[in-house]
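Exercise 7. Given the components listed, write out the predicted structure of the assembled complex. Treat all entries as one system.
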Amino acid sequence: MEFSELIRTGRAQAELLRGPEAPPLRGTLCVTGHHLLLSPGPQATSDLWLLLLRSVDSIEKRVAGDSGTITLRCKDLRVLQLDIEGVEATLDIARSIEALSSLESVITSFPFFYRPKGLRLGDAWHFHPPEHYYKRVARETNAWRLSEVNEDFSVCPSYPRAVIVPRAVDDDALKRSARFRQGGRFPVLSYHHAPSGTVLLRSSQPLTGPQKRRCAEDEEMLRAVLAGARPGARGFIVDTRSSQTAKQARMTGGGTEAKAAYPGWKRLHRPLERGRPLQESFVRLVEACGDLEQSMDRWLSRLEGCRWLAHVKEALSTACLAAQGMEREGACILVHGAEGTDSTLLVTSLAQLILDPLSRTMAGFQELVEREWIQAGHPFQLRCAHSAFSHARPKHEAPTFLLFLDCVWQLGRQFPLSLEFGEGLLLALFEHAYASPFGTFLCNSEKERCLCEVRTRTHSLWSGLNQPKEQRKVRNPLYVLNPLAIWPSVEPQSLRLWQGLFLRWTRPPEPSEVAWEKVWQIVTDKEKTEGSQPTVSAPEPQS
Amino acid sequence: MEHIRTTKVEQVKLLDRFSTSNKSLTGTLYLTATHLLFIDSHQKETWILHHHIASVEKLALTTSGCPLVIQCKNFRIVHFIVPRERDCHDIYNSLLQLSKQAKYEDLYAFSYNPKQNDSEQLRGWQLIDLAEEYKRMGVPNSNWQLSDANREYKICETYPRELYVPRIASKPIIVGSSKFRSKGRFPVLSYYHQDKEAAICRCSQPLSGFSARCLEDEHLLQAISKANPVNRYMYVVDTRPKLNAMANRAAGKGYENEDNYSNIRFQFVGIENIHVMRSSLQKLLEVNGTKGLSVNDFYSGLESSGWLRHIKAVMDAAIFLAKAIMIENASVLVHCSDGWDRTSQVCSLGSLLLDSFYRTIKGFMVLIEKDWISFGHKFSERCGHLDGDPKEVSPVFTQFLECVWHLTEQFPQAFEFNEAFLLQIHEHIYSCQFGNFLGNCQKEREELKFKEKTYSLWPFLLDDQKKYLNPLYSSKSQKFAVLEPNTVSFNFKFWRNMYHQFDRTLHPRQSVFNIIMNMNEQNKQLEDDIKDLESKIKQHENKQTDGVLTRESLHSVRPESPTLKTSLCFKEQTLLPVNDALRTIEGSIPADNRYSEYAEEFSKSEPAVVSLEFGVARMTC
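Answer.
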């Protein structure tokens, strides 16, 4: 399909309003296959303005007289207004944007065309293969091996090619266990906590069904996990559904581990919100944040009503529970909900961030996102198809990844010196997860990414973010390595609305950004003054 | 002291306020003349000043002892369990006596001795000079003059002696106006904006009833508007809700009738009275004291308490003032009922928005001294310094501090001081350790000779200035000349560091503030070193006119340089230790964070259940 068929009109004169703070921009508006461009006249000082069409979440058009207005609500929560000369042009442009922003084909998406200067195709894609993490685990313990049972994605379509499993379990047993788990997601290692000799595992729900089926290989696998951990270790299964929901899942073939079948393991239920209710919570919060006129009472009651911060609290405290189980109780933890691709990953990734100092470094965090979200099969394409403004009926959308980023932000607020990355990185990840010129968040699984040749035909976000010019945006200047576990407070008084994200476009960002700039300045001054001492004594050799 | 029956009780438990599993520390409780002291088994000390105690409550006897709950005015809440009821009873009675004094002379300030001599004491009191402050503002001038009408407190007992009024307002007009104003608090100058030649004036409500007029009062208002050469009309801001003001008319009080005054624009801004504020805070504290509070209960509690709504109302009123002066160039007259609560809040905040001087450490002291202390905000009654009418207690000044805190959050670079400064001032309005906030008006303070018998807080804060500096402050930036805060609802946040200042586990575990402060200091030090070394190099170069720089001569610079030496050990000591000191709290233990319910789950499964599980498992195998 050619994009040109969808572009109804090439260009029009327009004025762009970008919120209360930024000055309006006048110029020629132009729709291309992937972008909306606004080119100010030759006399203008400002540069070309560019918007990735993929990032448009909803379009609203209005015409009056001989001009029209298009309101674009973007997936990164920005709201833009275009005043366009000519009714026909307005309608055509609106239709073009509508058609082009909702294209579903992956291989015609912008990342396949994006060829930025200074970056080479294939760079940074090799940064975080499963082998890489396995090497670290292998240094710490001998009880685990890297299995390539899923080499051709036939055992589990949503797992990567290689997964880390107990050494005592062979590939045939894995295949059988996979048949007993929804979507073939048999228990695999997520994190090895060396200080306590325990592990964090994740999987999907067992397919016990109404007959309460069992699977000897699956049971054997969990037994092997305990045997391979520190002597006498117990296990806890953290089910991210309520016990009632877990029980009900039996009717549709799912279920949860029977106590008797898994000796040494005990089940805990920590219901986390997911799916549509989570998406609705997000939508309602964004709605509330967009209303500048509301009274204090209304705002507080909407903040309460959307329940977003309650979800943050639940997610964080479940992760703390898992982390505490490992670090304090010396227990192995298996996390799963139903499919094991959403709240499961939320819990396992947050637990690592709490326990593992390495995952709080810039490289470690990128590795964590890559390993625990992208390669672990979080269906980004489905979950992030639409953001909070879309009028389309949500099908598979859910801001699970955003909830993760919010929880990380809360950790960063409570431990402002312990994360090597700053708010900027989290904001960038949010933006790119929903619409990006990079290929990192494309598709729903490694299998799909292989089919689309994402790794060879698009650029990796990590290579984009790790360029020197981005560093000031994404790094935390105050970082010092903190070798301890960071236990956050999850009391409501300690949790804050993430203003930097939810109010990013509605509040004047200036004062806090200027202040942050000042922090950078103080830190770099420090490096400079410290660094300049030798230059003062430099004359010495000359004498 | 005759009230103390037991001075020491051992084996007392201090409960964790938020723990759902009744976690506690065991230690010894001491009762001194001024403080309650708890030393736990790790030798950590908890000091509670008797004057800080708002209430003491003895709960029903439990198996482990007799619970004693102490709530403090600085929002500390401690929950002790005393093993023997007899001891608990003694302590309870002593604290009741000690926390409620009948006379000023029994307050801590009269026994507090910081080892200063008389002249130091006097200099401390002279540190803040309001006459100097009015001079800084630019009065007296051709339009405003110092009035001696109240020199002997004859016209108004709750005003200071020195008052500034329009030059054209004669004494009979002032006297006449004061008779028409509640408590004699006639319109006087609070802040003068030199560039705009506009003024913020303050007074109390007029005794207008339904129809009464007072020509002198009308003249005085006219004189104020005439004192502004640019804009002839002035705003009269009644900070009360309209309904309250109207109700006051039935009692012979009320508000200005626009028809009787020329050139005024009358405006209500709707800040609630002290009773509403008191119960609002009460509700807020109740919600936040709940164990295992859910996010939703927190926000619905925050909403129903109305606290942030009230804060926003005060802020909006102050913005109204600032805008009237900056945009319309108009003078403003502010009043509420008596003109010492809401009026003080609004006038001081308005001045703070307009004038960057009040955003410095010294300036903020001046502001408090001017609009709060000298104009007769009834600190002793509002803070309950003495055993008095509980209905007079209200967190009016706390609200002011909170508004300032919100401004510091919105403008992180506009204030010379930091949050710790606000918290410290809050601490001392209740501590009764210094004389500044004792009493209800200047006349009372003079009569009781506070300046001779007590010490002023301000010099002590200035000595400790380092602790209260905001490292991000940029004094020169023109951007922050006049603050224009945005009061959209989501800019108001719950001030955790105030209302939970003693609940350590709720706070961030690491402080950006300390780190930046230290870095800043290091930067300065190192820059000084560089300068020092550079100048020494230059000296040597100059000395050796032939330009031969020997290695020895330069080498001798280094060991001699004391600054460098100190800076190096400074670096070694502070760079890492800063982090380490923080780290001791930052790692914290999970139990601190009360995931305890989960901890219980872990421990629950331990002895009985798990072994049973293992047992069952063995049988099935």
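Discussion: The CA atoms of residues 27 and 40 of chain B lie 4 Å apart. Chain B touches chain A through 88 residues (CB under 8 Å).
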